[in-house]
Amino acid sequence: MPTAPTAPARRPPTRGVGKLLLKAFLLLLPFSAVVGSYLVLDPFQVLYHYDTYATQVIPNRDYISTQLFVDNYPQHRYQSFILGNSRTLAFTVRDWAKYTHDPSGFHYDAFAESLFGVWKKLQFLENQGAELKNVLIICDPQLLAQTRDVESHLFRKDPRLTGELPFRFQLSFFRAYLARFFFLHYWKLNLTGQVTPGMEDLFNTRGGGIAPITNDMLLTEVEQQIAADSVGFYARNPGLPPRPARSPVSPAVIGPEAREQLAAIWAILARHHTNYHFVISPLYSQEALNPADLAYLVQTFGREHIHDFSGVNELTKHPGYYYEASHYRPLVGRKIMRLIYAKDSTGIGAGRGVGN
């Protein structure tokens, strides 16, 4: 009986597999380059340790402030703290030390700070064993309204404050590196020194620096430009829009969660017998803090600790007291501190902005 012909032995499809692997490699090569550049360049300065932070990219100020505290506290043993959002740049430790007599205070702020963030920072400081001798909290309706963490890489809280997994925190920055092809614009900035039009919101175009011990935000170059030619500065930087004819009043923002967090803040300050003050910022818009919110702050912390400079007053009347519509200058901070600590009631005028 004839035997059936045997099928030829199949050769392993090495050539096909090789082509597939080569295509996969070529496809992954650009992504690998992006990942590698992120790990090497660390554009947001959140991967590695730095002695000073002077980034071209707008940083996560919450992370930088926490890291500088952790680095410096063993040597400097801070006892005085300024907390709040970026408007705290008007209040420097050097100016504040005239009243606290503590030159090594720490500026513990964050961009777009929240009530949640202030509470968590005070809780973190207490857990680190810090003595809260003096605390100055700079707030406004936006800060009081925010009682939870946010997803944005720029504004989310350091995981050492919240207990969030560090991986999730770091992942948000890598995603930001990819979003809007940020990495291409970052490479361009490093190669040419130029910021792509339309990407200014992601890069530091104003200059300035961070004091390595106190963590003060310093806009020395901007102040020098104003001193040399204030008219020219504001003509080149038209950031002060016309204000409404009638001063607006913010909606009431202190709800149940905010009340719980304010109570927790009060408890921490009370445990440490802290000399503390709340400053309600004098906003360029002349928006007044809602009377219900002001009354609740006074009820919780005591009238002598709440200083309301919102609304229309001698501080908010002067456009030259502001860099742009969001931030006021250190000369305003010095005026406010003199009112709070030196009890000098001159120079502000009557109304809500008197503080006490």
Beta fraction of the residues?
5-15%
Oligomer status: single chain
- The helix fraction, in percent, is 40-55%
Mean pLDDT: 89
Assign the structural class, choosing from mainly alpha, mainly beta, alpha/beta, alpha+beta, or little secondary structure: alpha/beta
The count of β-strands is 7
End-to-end separation in angstroms reads 114 Å
- Low-confidence segments, ≥5 residues, pLDDT <50? 344-356
Principal-axes shape call: globular
- SSE succession: HHEHEHEHHHHEEHHHEHEH
Radius of gyration, in angstroms, nearest whole number: 26 Å
* Helical run tally: 13
Tally of separate domains:
1
Largest sheet: 5 strands, parallel
The side-by-side strand order for the widest beta sheet comes to 2-1-3-6-7
Keywords: Membrane, Transmembrane, Transmembrane helix
Descriptive terms for the model:
single chain; 356 residues; 5-stranded parallel sheet; two-stranded antiparallel ribbon; 13 helices; 8% strand; globular
